[in-house]
Design goal:
This protein has about 375 residues and is α+β, with helices and mostly antiparallel strands. The protein contains 10 helices and 17 strands. It is about 25% helix and about 20% strand. The N and C termini lie far apart (about 55 Å). The radius of gyration is 22 Å and the shape is globular. The strands form 7 sheets. It has a 3-stranded antiparallel beta sheet, with no helix packed on it. The longest helix has 19 residues.
Length: about 375
């Protein structure tokens, strides 16, 4: 369908209005929008407790600066951490900043790494910022490399395959659309993945308001200086990407344990809103970097789906609200926070030192065909009936 209103700069080969509908077509969740809480996910159908209803691969992941010598950049294998020789055998001999656990992982990652990222990492100075910020620089470089045009990009991966632009005019979005319009720099031959990534919230206006944005300027300028000329965006657009990463990145654990060994951006999963008593649990598939989402209880179609943005839900209401306000710029008014007396959710594991979630599962008895209902912690794997 081709539409063009008076003065609109864009002729849509596919409707802007149904961008999210097409993007989430194969999922069991859909995006909705509310004036107060923004965009959020709801169940398309009834979902039973314990069901793995949604899987989300990463848009981009970066190994933490402190873990770069023993964690594979492609699969996040961290078996080398206990070895006398902490470095993997396979590494990028050009930039000497990326390590892999196998030739297969090195080859699989070459499409992303052997582009702007490798050229930028040749100039990377690990002492420029603290390790956490340097990891964010690594992730920003990887994101910039994935969204930029590349040679021989298939036509059906280009943004221009879906939309026609007049780059000297604003991108007009119908009121019914949830889409965040792309800036001029992301039009034409950029990947459609760039438009999907651009849909993430950045909270950049809140960062400007509280003065935090000033502290990020040096990181953005440094990152731009690393990139080859042809891969650079404007400082304004690069800052917006950086803010989107900081607001939406997930911690990523290694294959051997749950310790944080890197950061990742999972675009579709970023549309989950927060609750201090969530109905969704997150786990990682250790055979890949895919994040798996499980229901903590039965929900009917149309139910809003929430995860927790806080690692430790045993903390009190004041702590949780302050953490969310400082890091995500909202005052939490979930049902739990509004209770006159706080109560720790019953699905919290309770094992000493563990703050995992007990996820419903079915277990067949050995001798009989009966099915027993159990719950398994998504962190320590403790079972309870």
């Amino acid at each position: 369908v081709s539409t063009q209103s008076t003065g609109c700069c864009m002729a849509a080969k596919q409707g802007v209005e149904d961008f999210f509908e097409r993007w989430f077509k194969s999922e069991k969740v859909e995006v909705r929008k509310d004036p107060n809480k923004g965009r959020y996910l709801v169940a398309k159908t009834n979902i039973s407790g314990g069901q793995n209803f949604f899987n989300c691969p990463p848009f981009a992941c970066a190994v933490h600066e402190k873990a770069k010598d023993y964690v594979c950049q492609h699969c996040f294998n961290d078996k080398k951490r206990e070895s006398e020789n902490t470095h993997w055998e396979h590494w990028c001999s050009i930039c000497k900043q990326i390590w892999y656990c196998s030739v297969e992982c090195k080859r699989a990652d070459a499409k992303v790494h052997l582009s702007a990222e490798c050229a930028a990492m040749q100039k990377l100075n690990s002492d420029e910022f603290d390790p956490d910020i340097m990891t964010e620089v690594r992730l920003l470089l990887r994101v910039m490399g994935k969204i930029a045009p590349r040679e021989n990009m298939p036509e059906d991966e280009k943004l221009s395959h879906f939309y026609e632009f007049k780059t000297d005019q604003p991108f007009e979005i119908p009121p019914s659309s949830f889409m965040i319009p792309p800036p001029k720099s992301l039009r034409g031959n950029f990947s459609i993945k760039a438009l999907e990534f651009w849909q993430l919230i950045s909270n950049s206006q809140a960062l400007v308001k509280n003065g935090t944005i000033d502290g990020l300027t040096g990181v953005v300028e440094y990152t731009i200086s690393l990139l080859p000329e042809e891969a650079r965006l404007s400082q304004e657009d690069t800052m917006e990407y950086y803010c989107k990463i900081r607001c939406n990145m997930f911690g990523v654990g290694g294959t051997e344990n749950e310790d944080l060994v890197g950061y990742g951006v999972y675009v579709k999963a970023s549309f989950f809103n927060h609750s201090c008593e969530p109905n969704v649990s997150l786990s990682r598939d250790f055979q890949s970097l895919v994040h798996q989402f499980y229901m903590l209880k039965d929900v009917p179609a149309g139910t809003e789906l929430n995860i927790s943005y806080i690692d430790d839900l045993t903390k009190n209401t004041e702590y949780r609200r302050n953490h969310l306000k400082d890091n995500y710029f909202f005052h939490c008014v979930c049902k739990r926070c509004e209770l006159p007396e706080d109560k720790i959710p019953e699905f919290i594991c309770g094992q000493e030192g563990c703050k995992g979630f007990l996820v419903p599962k079915e277990k067949k008895a050995k001798k009989k065909a009966k099915v027993a209902k159990i719950r398994v912690c998504n962190v320590c794997f403790r079972q309870e009936t």
